[in-house]
Amino acid sequence: MLNVAFITDDNYVLPTSVAIISLVKNTHTELNIYVVCDSLDKEKKETITKLGTNECNIEIIEVGDRYDFKKKDTGRFEGLTISKAALLKFSLPDILSNVEKVLFIDGDTIINRDLSELYIEDIENYYLAAVNDIAGLFDSESTKKYYSDIDTPREEYFNTGVMLMNLKQMREDSVSKKLIELRKKYEDPLMDQNTYNIVTWKKKKRIHSKYNFQTRIIECMELKDINQINNTNYNNIDELLNDQYILHTIGREKPWVMEIPYISSIYNQYYVESPFYSGGTNSSFLVNRRNEYEELKEMYVRLYKKTDIFRKPRNFIKSIFDTKSK
């Protein structure tokens, strides 16, 4: 039995549903899925629960005001919005009070393979197991300062989109309380990821990037560099992506909002099975315009190597491939 947790709200039911569909389709053992939320309207709750099967139980946990954060804890900081749903991640050990171990997965993911191997990872002496964040791969003055400011070594900074969590140990050490107190203490833009890193990195187990493959890396690094980092020998991007266990579509642009070369063709395999599918995908658009994407990617890589930027060129790519603007 695999215990898996998602956090969602009314605005994130679509991607969460697609992630659940991909999880169920690729898992060959029993699943117990917890969907944690502030509250959901009746129709959306029914949409999620209907995704369950004989081998997959889905339980929606509405926490209401039990974990209420004030406006300053969920406000906007320098263009970054911290939602209450994201902050519920701090309270998972308490919300899932009868669960000792859970695999938390963000809703903006695609589960490509059976996660049983990941779930049996030994984390008895750790709070959690996680994959390092790809931002740590880039050696620039701003990234060095960033990790120094949050008192976390760059080589230990992890992405919280996928975490195998030792909830029993976290409850014993009052980790939820520490996370919430730290988040309330600072006025700077501490997202849930930063807070988790500061509090737990010393008791975090590092796991292979295939369990949280952050897809933005294919836009800012060449395949040969990705192969070198991961000690792999993929011949092309499609082969690389299809071999990952969890694809995590980090960043602002998402495959349920816009067409993303390489990613959307995988995402649509599960989206078409969701209750949100209304017919028609734009796969031909992706195939026909990959050459343009590759040209822009080459520009992106060159710019990144010369300057200390991470997001700006991607907006240019978005302007080319955002089908909603056509």
Describe this structure in words.
- This protein is an alpha/beta fold and 326 residues long.
- It folds into two domains: 2-208, Spore Coat Polysaccharide Biosynthesis Protein SpsA, Chain A (Alpha-Beta Complex); 213-325, no CATH class.
- It contains 16 helices and twelve strands.
- The chain has helices spanning 13-26, 42-49, 84-87, 92-95, 116-119, 141-149, 167-172, 175-185, 192-200, 217-220, 223-230, 237-242, 263-271, 283-288, 290-306, 312-321, and strands spanning 2-7, 31-37, 56-62, 76-77, 80-81, 101-105, 109-111, 128-132, 158-166, 204-206, 213-214, 246-248.
- The protein has a seven-stranded mixed beta sheet with strand order 3-2-1-6-9-8-10, sandwiched between helices. Strands 7-12-11 form a three-stranded mixed beta sheet. A two-stranded antiparallel sheet has the order 4-5.
Mean pLDDT: 82
Main sheet attributes: strand count, strand direction, barrel closure: 7 strands, mixed
How many discrete domains? 2
Q: How far from one another are the termini? A: 46 Å
CATH class category of the largest domain: Alpha Beta
Shape: globular
Helical content (DSSP H or I, runs of 4+)? 25-40%
- The helix/strand order is EHEHEEEHHEEHEHEHHHEEHHHEHHHH
- Please count the helical segments: 16
What would you give as the CATH superfamily of the largest domain?
Spore Coat Polysaccharide Biosynthesis Protein SpsA, Chain A
Name the CATH architecture of the largest domain. Answer: Alpha-Beta Complex
The fraction of residues in strands falls at 15-25%
Strand order of the largest sheet: 3-2-1-6-9-8-10
The count of strands amounts to: 12
Low-confidence stretches: 71-81, 283-288, 306-326
Which structural class is indicated by helix and strand composition? alpha/beta
Radius of gyration equals 19 Å
What is the third-level CATH name, the topology of the largest domain?
Spore Coat Polysaccharide Biosynthesis Protein SpsA, Chain A
